[in-house]
């Protein structure tokens, strides 16, 4: 893989893997244009005040309509051939477009099933876009993994369980019962299981 177009930046100076000098692409004129334009437009429209979506049917409708506007905005930005750096949908810029914070979106999810299902659907749509980009190497796959874990509830686990679904104490009890049923006892001197004496 060629490092053409990459420039160094400094990381932590430790003797661990992944630290020290890294390579990244240099900033370009339009790297932040779409997201900053959105922040300015939303701030001007709201005159700096956060948006509110009341806990009502009308509030949910307004939330849905503004979210649809967000996806249309992303599509229109990305359709501009003059803008080399495209806008990738994510939770943070969705929240910004709505005029709220990602914490506010989380709070809205607690309003009940209808709000939760609606928000989960849109979060899933955002995750699906990023997954497609990662699978086509348009964004680094590891960046997607961290984002999916932190923003979309995915869990990467290599956990090993002796018996699925049973608490550890119950698993230990089952093992003890199996040892006893096999007629074995632990010999402390020899550090091994042996047949019970009659």
Explain how this protein is built.
The relative contact order is 0.07. The chain is built from 7 helices and 4 strands. The chain folds into 2 domains: 29-151, no CATH class; 160-198, no CATH class. It is elongated and about 85 Å long. The mean pLDDT is 76. The protein is mostly helical.
State the total count of DSSP E strands. 4
Q: What class would the helix/strand composition place it in? A: mainly alpha
Please give the count of helices.
Answer: 7
Percentage of residues assigned to helices: 40-55%
Q: From the structure provided, what is the oligomeric state, counting identical versus distinct chains?
A: single chain
Sequence of secondary-structure elements:
EEHHHHHHHEE
The first-to-last residue Cα distance is 70 Å
Stretches where pLDDT falls below 50 for ≥5 residues? none
Q: Please state how the strands of the largest beta sheet are arranged side by side.
A: 1-2
The major β-sheet equals: 2 strands, antiparallel
Could you tell me the radius of gyration in angstroms?
27 Å
Arithmetic mean of pLDDT: 76
**How many individual domains?**
2
% residues in beta strands:
5-15%
Shape: elongated
Spell out the blueprint of helices and strands.
Elements: E1 7-10, E2 21-24, H1 33-46, H2 57-78, H3 91-98, H4 102-109, H5 113-135, H6 141-151, H7 168-181, E3 184-187, E4 192-195
Antiparallel strand pairs: 1-2, 3-4
Helix pairs in contact: 1-3, 5-6
